[in-house]
Amino acid sequence: MRSSEPLDLLATEDPVAAFGGAERAGRPLALPTSGTSGRPRTIIRSTASWTGSFLAVDELTGIDGSSRVWVPGPLTATMNLFASVHARWAGATLVADLEAATHAHLTPTALLRVLDTRPVELAGRHLVVAGDRVDDETRDRVRAAGAGLSHYYGAAETSFVAWGAHAEALRPFPGVEVETRDGELWVRSPHLADGYLETEHTLRGDADGWVTVGDRGEVVAGSVHVHGREGGITTAGATVRIAEIEHTLRPHASGEVAVIGLPHPDLGEVVAAAVTHPRDVRHLAAVAPSVLPPAQRPRRWLHIDALPLTAHDKVDRATLRTAFATARVPA
CATH: 3.30.300.30, 3.40.50.2300, 3.20.20.70, 3.40.50.300. Which one for 232-327? Predict the structure, then answer.
């Protein structure tokens, strides 16, 4: 008997094995988002919306039954759960460290950490990287280390949207259509989620099967250029990544943290951080020198009651900049 009750994979003892059980039972999946926008949502999708992409991922990555796959990130992140489920489906072996792996699934932050500390271990391995932009410099460092690289753009709601060697070489994932409407990326795909468990959230789409999560971008001559995810801050000639700073500060925070760049007459921009817990202003300012290099350390701090959000539940960084200006926070 097939069940229509969504299965919360992360509530099971072995989410990867539970996926197989849900597939056999024809049961949909409940997958929580990361909640980085401040309002976590639970996505409902069929197992077929994932398995339908497996053969294409095999071809693009070379993962098969002889592969050994390292997925160091937590399964609470959809990209890591997908990678682990796919590896098991392909007959590959999940391994506990890079040295034993033929393939690895990483965020750009994790990739840069490996490039900085043990690049020799990347030789001969194929890396699949998502979660933020992979720029030309990182691509070149991966190649110099003797590794292969696949980079993709997607979302928890859409799964794969575009795939390539780096952020400027993304093309629509096999079987997926991508177009731009008023500066937003819209997607039509067999790998879409069905919607959200929470009734207050809806997946924005049209009658022809196109959906958007509100990311900004454009499609030029078949290439997908993603602009909607905040990238870098250029301060005193150095470019630092917003995602890396937030990722480093969040474990030390009592509330939420959002980072932006603010204009500065001499430095170009300075790093600024807004926090939602009052003690985090002093606490994180004290912690930052021990966990962040100088260029990444916020120069300005602001406590606000809640992070402002866009209509698509993403941090509204333009409103944050206005809040800093209104508060007249000194450098």
Answer: 3.30.300.30
